[in-house]
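Help needed: design a sequence for this.
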């Protein structure tokens, strides 16, 4: 999957093939306007208001106490991108908006786009200074438990997890597990998917207090969420427990260098029962010299800003598992879940 300039007609397509279209203008200049326009439409309540009823810019501005000229500019831009349609009665939400960006959406992303993405926008604003200095922003997980950051962080990541969680848990080679350890599982989304797949499974999310507090709130809102409990602690020094049938360490390796990841995975191996399974879910970095998926490449830039690390290839993640003492190591991908890799392994011994 790629974020790229797309022609609207055969003439533009021919111009792109001929190299006439200045892609940097669209992808380096107009792209940020697209992103911020969608973010604003979510955070200002425009999409939710249009879901209640179609309207024009003047009516919508009055309902939301916004500037009519600003609402008009946003609606024109959103219409050009296909997020709203126009007809009798004014503007109404498009298909993708109804599916993802309104209250009660089938696959909700409103928290991610309308709140969480603003935080990521601010982090990316530090990119040049971090590349120059080599000093990451570094406050991603260091805020006090009561800080509002944890709510936007966990709720945004929960929505993202639900787009791929069902596929992810099908890639984890475990049979009839009864206990799950989800290290740095934050929002509990992957644990919830595992519990829904494996009847009777009880999951423990091991997390920092700020993330765990929001994770409990999210699980209380979900059917089956009572099967997911939270234990507060530091994953490198806290007591993880023992005898688990399966463990996960999802979207956490990109915050640490290889040695630290092997150390963490070694601790998780000790918490597993003999023959227990581990799985790592990550956005995958393209292999050296390969163009690969943009998702893992671009998020690698974000993680560099926050942690001065990066995303990893599936081969690298598998090597971490092998070095940590796991066997039967493999990695899985799907064209239906672009840019994501699941690396898994088994603790030696019979279960």
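Sure. Designed sequence:
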């Amino acid at each position: 999957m790629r974020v790229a300039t797309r022609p609207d007609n055969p003439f533009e397509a021919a111009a792109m093939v001929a190299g006439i279209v200045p892609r940097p203008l669209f992808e380096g200049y107009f792209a940020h306007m697209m992103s911020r326009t969608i973010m604003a439409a979510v955070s200002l309540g425009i999409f939710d208001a249009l879901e209640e009823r179609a309207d024009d810019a003047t009516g919508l501005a009055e309902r939301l106490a916004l500037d009519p000229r600003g609402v008009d500019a946003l609606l024109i831009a959103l219409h050009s991108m296909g997020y709203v349609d126009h007809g009798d009665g004014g503007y109404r939400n498009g298909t993708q908006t109804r599916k993802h960006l309104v209250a009660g959406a089938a696959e909700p992303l409103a928290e991610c786009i309308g709140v969480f993405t603003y935080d990521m926008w601010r982090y990316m604003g530090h990119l040049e200074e971090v590349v120059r200095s080599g000093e990451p922003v570094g406050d991603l997980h260091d805020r006090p438990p009561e800080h509002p950051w944890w709510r936007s962080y966990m709720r945004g990541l929960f929505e993202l997890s639900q787009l791929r969680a069902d596929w992810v848990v099908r890639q984890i080679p475990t049979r009839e597990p009864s206990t799950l350890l989800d290290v740095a599982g934050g929002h509990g989304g992957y644990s919830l998917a595992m519990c829904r797949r494996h009847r009777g499974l009880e999951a423990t999310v091991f997390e920092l207090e700020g993330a765990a507090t929001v994770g409990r709130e999210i699980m209380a809102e979900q059917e089956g969420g009572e099967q997911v409990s939270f234990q507060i602690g530091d994953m490198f020094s806290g007591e993880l427990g023992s005898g688990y049938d399966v463990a996960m360490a999802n979207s956490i390796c990109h915050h640490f260098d290889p040695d630290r990841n092997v150390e963490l995975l070694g601790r998780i191996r000790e918490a597993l029962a003999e023959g227990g399974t581990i799985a790592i879910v990550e956005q995958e970095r393209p292999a050296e010299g390969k163009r690969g998926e943009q998702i893992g490449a671009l998020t690698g830039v974000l993680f560099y800003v926050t942690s001065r690390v990066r995303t990893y290839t599936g081969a690298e993640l598998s090597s971490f598992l092998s070095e940590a003492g796991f066997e039967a190591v493999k990695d899985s991908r799907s064209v239906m879940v672009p840019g994501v890799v699941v690396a898994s392994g088994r603790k030696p011994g019979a279960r």
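Residues 166 and 246 are 16 Å apart (CA to CA).
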